[in-house]
Amino acid sequence: MRYAIHALKAASMCMLSISLLSARQAEPAKPITPTEIKRAINARSDVDECDSLDQIHIDHLEYYDFTGDGQPEAVVVASTCMTGTAGPDVHAVYTRHPHGTLAELPLLNAKGDPPWSDQVNQAIPVFGNPNYTLTVDGGKLVVRWGDSSDRDQPLTVWYNWDGTKFIVDHAKLQGPFPTSYDCRKATKEFDRAICYSPEVAALDLELGRIYRETLQKFRADQKQGLQKQQREWLARREKTCTIYKWWVDCLKDLYTKRIAELRGATTESTPSRGAATDPHDFASRTNFPNLAASILGTRLIYRSPHAPAQPD
């Protein structure tokens, strides 16, 4: 009889434990709060600690359960006391460990940027003053890059969570655009930037065409003066328009003035039949580069070989 009573008590305790566990599991997961996020940001080793959490501003916050554990992760874009004029300096996806602390889900590469293709060392084609946002779209993490070029959506990248880290699913890139040189062979940031500005690339293409047409008007022994001036213009172009916030407007102004100058000089310097031409006098009024033309595609789309087909 005494054994039966003990067994009944044990069974009751077991049922109570199961009921409490079921009730706990049925409770909604505790969301990661903005205060927790600010504390986690202030504790990061790559961010100088702010004197107050009030100095950390959360620019964007949304939640999605990437890991499938029932606890939504926090997708965060934030600005700390050290951000300056460059824009938000924190882009992270925070998850909560079972013991309660926050941690970041791996996204950034060794350079501190989110990758945009499966090529490890491939430079991100954004220029001037780049920054990016983090959002969720269709269960995927999305990075949308912006820069100081004249593209409305320079680069957008979609990521999947593979259980250990975010991996690139697919990406859409605006550019490169046709220029007077082969953008595939461009290695300098200045030359690459022009390839990814639709307006400057078009002006560069036009300038190259006008220059070649003008150069054809001279005999081989008359071209040295103009060629010297074009080398000087190339050097001056890079010093005048550094690739930062207003580089597109700077280059548009420089190219537009040069094109008008070359057209005017061409009209004034066209010799009458039988008249002699002074190439040095002509070159002093033109100063244009001799650039070879090639045509590239205007839109590049990267897709992971392991990703399912996606609609455009």
Question: What would your notes on this structure say?
Answer:
By secondary structure, this protein is α+β, with helices and mostly antiparallel strands. It has seven helices and nine strands. Strands 5-6-7-8-9 form a five-stranded antiparallel sheet, with no helix packed on it. A four-stranded antiparallel sheet has the order 1-2-3-4, with helices on one face. A hairpin with an 8-residue loop joins strand 6 (140-146) and strand 7. Helix 4 packs parallel to helix 6 (247-269). The chain is elongated, with a radius of gyration of 30 Å. Mean pLDDT is 80; it is low at 1-26, 272-277 and 282-306.
Concise structural overview:
With 312 residues, the chain is of the alpha+beta class.
Compute the number of helices.
7
Distance between the termini: 74 Å
Tell me the major beta sheet: 5 strands, antiparallel
Return the average pLDDT rounded to an integer: 80
Helix content: 25-40%
Query: What is Rg?
Result: 30 Å
Poorly predicted sequence stretches spanning 5 or more consecutive residues: 1-26, 272-277, 282-306
Per DSSP, what share of the residues sits in E-state strands of 2 or more residues?
Answer: 15-25%
- The general outline is elongated
How many discrete structural domains? 3
**Quaternary status:** single chain
Element pattern in H and E: HHEEEEEEEEHHHHHE
Order of strands side by side in the largest beta sheet? 5-6-7-8-9
Number of strands: 9
Structural class: alpha+beta
